Known about the structure:
It is found in: Secreted. One of its GO terms (cellular component) is extracellular region. By secondary structure, the protein is mainly β. Helices cover 0% and strands 66% of the residues. A hairpin with a 2-residue loop joins strand 1 and strand 2.
Amino acid sequence: MQEADGDREACSVHEEEQQITYQGCTANVTLTRCQGFCASSVSFNTDTLQWETRCGCCQPLSTYEKQLSLPCPDPNAPVHIYAIHRSVTVLGPFFFFSLAKMEDSRSGKGGISSRTVAY
């Protein structure tokens, strides 16, 4: 797992209790989610004259399936299968480049115009 910056929590697995109801049958289950800080930055590269955006993404690394049989009077009630996150990771960094066009400040057309290209 990646370390967090400052007070931000690193990307990790979080559990939450949820109530599932299907055809009048109800059960409490523990579900998981990926959550946490993923580093990102934007900087201007003076060599390429491009804005460079780097960003990570908190994603599941491994999961397993869990079966849920709802307590129903109907013996033919279906068994539900859902995924539980075993571990997570920060994917990336993903790079996005904004192509910048420098304007001649002597002509009165100052500033930078750009368009974004994702890789």
